[in-house]
Amino acid sequence: MFSSRFPWGAGGNADLRPNRLTQLLTAKRRAGARILDLTESNPTRASLAYPAETLSALADPRGLIYEPAPAGAAEARQAVASYYRTRGHNLDVSRILLTASTSEAYAYLFKLLANPGDQVLVPRPSYPLFEFLAHMEAVEARQYPLVYHGAWSIDLDALRGAITDRTRAVVLVNPNNPTGSYVKRHELEALVRWCAERGIALISDEVFSDYAFARDESRVATLAGVEECLAFSMSGLSKIAGLPQMKLGWIVASGPEHLRREALEKLEWIADTYLSVSTPVQCAAVHLLKVGDNIREQIRERCAANLAAAREALAGSAGNILAVEGGWYITVQAPKIRSEEEWVLELLERENLLVQPGFFYDFETEAFLIVSLLTVPEVFNEGLNRLRAYL
Question: What DSSP designation does 194 have?
């Protein structure tokens, strides 16, 4: 009696029962074991120093007045435009639509672009929720590969071969989660050309774009300046201000004016149906984005220091850190003498060390271990030393 949007349950092909790693972790914690968790991705639990005045703007009395605006309050959208202006992009606020999160932004865009049964192309490896987000909109998520040859790149030939008559969008995660690889200019040029020819949209998830480890002129920081095809850039407070609980994200529309205007009109209609963004967080947006400057700097310093520590800890070991350009994660290639599942289970069982297996992110080969650079340094350093010893 339920819809086919759910890939689990009776007739579905997804198994949502706790996996072996979750079962072992639960048992360990019940037994009181001290777990060195190298998977932390929640900035509010990463011992960052949030300024004392972070929450003060939520007391704004305007938060008591309900004045719904489908695209978002003008002041909040202007704050987002200012964020892009400091990065060299002058955007009219009419190109910005607020959402409660990037996950909701995906839902809006899939509704906008695709009919049931249509396809969106998504990267592999990458964000593990794409299949679920697409299924919820009755859309098929079809994967295209990222390949590694000393650095990550999009397999452009494979991506082009994955395009069908039902393809409505190509999703980019820039930089990718968890590989930390940015889209390069030559890759974007090819994608824009193909999408313009076929009437396909580009969707760019840019939540980690502020966390590059070094400058590189060959990289693309945002799709906000794309003109030749319809393109959407997404970000939000979750990563750029370390405030996932504030539930404020956005979509920036780019591309040919007639397509951009029609897309924004339809997006406003979708947003007006839900009106999900809270008034208090919109009133606080200017303040929270300013607070984000401090939080981003702390996260950058944390990630850079942990990356350096990881390289030192694993130097000369059997663990190889793959090239990473930005973001919050590193990928450690372990010897293929056992499966990823065996690696992570043994590390947890014998060393009380929690890492994620590459198959959580749909890596095509083994064995890869994913480690969060956001981890508190004391835990991170002890964990990497245990990982080296075990390797």
Answer: H
Other Cβ atoms closer than 10 A to 336: 12
CA separation for the pair 329, 344 (Å, rounded): 16
* Sign of the torsion formed by the C-alpha atoms of 78, 101, 26 and 369: negative
Taking only the tens place, the pLDDT of each residue in 183-220 is 999 999 999 999 999 999 999 999 999 999 999 999 99
Asked whether 201 and 229 are in contact (CB, 8 A), the reply is yes
Distance (Å, rounded) from C-alpha 125 to C-alpha 321?
A: 16
**Cβ-contact 229, 255 below 8 angstroms:** yes
DSSP 182: P
Supply the pLDDT for residue 3.
Answer: 83
Gap between the terminal Cα atoms of the chain: 50
Instruction: Name beta bridge partners: 236.
Output: 249
- Contact call for residues 4 and 138 (beta carbons, < 8 A): yes
322-357 pLDDT tens trace: 999 999 999 999 999 999 999 999 999 999 999 999
Domains along the chain?
20-49+290-390 (3.90.1150.10), 56-289 (3.40.640.10)
* pTM flag (> 0.85): yes
Q: Please write the tens of the pLDDT for every residue from 350-385.
A: 999 999 999 999 999 999 999 999 999 999 999 999
Number of CB atoms found within 10 A of residue 29's CB: 11
Q: How far apart are CA 203 and CA 167, in angstroms?
A: 13
What is the C-alpha to C-alpha distance for residues 79 and 289, in angstroms, rounded to an integer?
A: 7
Q: Which residues pair with 151 in a beta bridge?
A: none
